[in-house]
Amino acid sequence: MVKSATRPLTLEEFLKLPETKPASEYINGQIIQKPMPQGKHSKLQSKLVTAINEVVEIEKIAFAFTELRCTFGGRSIVPDVAVFAWERIPLDERGDVANVFEASPDWTIEILSPDQRQTKVTGNILHCLKHGTKLGWLLDPDERSVLVYPPKQQPELLQAEQEILPVPDLVSNLQLTVGQLFGWLKL
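Above: the chain sequence. Below: its structure as tokens.
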């Protein structure tokens, strides 16, 4: 049996498709579904968003979103945590937070799941940095490590519990060590 070649989907066509659970991303003309978040991923994600928003939301400095679709630079990705400076958060006609974000986050955080490929996640972080993101983190709960991606610099691997994690200037009042971050996995 001969299969006929199907043409690749465009970004615009992808964006018209219904959302999936877990979310699908559009990367280099391909649709790639993210793995279903598991316990460690979920705990780190919720604690990080809470910790970040506690220091930036009241003063309207920034806001951390979970699983927010960000479409820019020919990709549509869904970082585990996307932090946007307050003035960059798009609003709808009523002044509410918009549903569509067509920009890179100021800070992107990805949490590696057991069955997730590190190269794909790193590719998304690098794409964000190329399009204006000020910092990227890749958390590996199993290794208890954080790969920090500053723009136009070599990534830094942090594993020692006492190491303070670098944050972008907009959340400079957030101080968190590797030990505190992965300590959130304990009940």
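The radius of gyration is 17 Å.
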